[in-house]
Amino acid sequence: MRRKDREVTDFMKIENIISRCTCCRIGFYDEGEVYIVPLNFGYEVKDDTYTFYFHGAKEGRKIDLMKKNPVVGFEMDTNYALNEADTACGYSARFQSVIGTGVVSIVSESNEKELGLSLLMEHYAGKRNWDFDEKMMNAVAVFKLEVTKLSCKEHE
Question: To which H or E segment does residue 75 belong?
Answer without folding.
Answer: strand 71-83
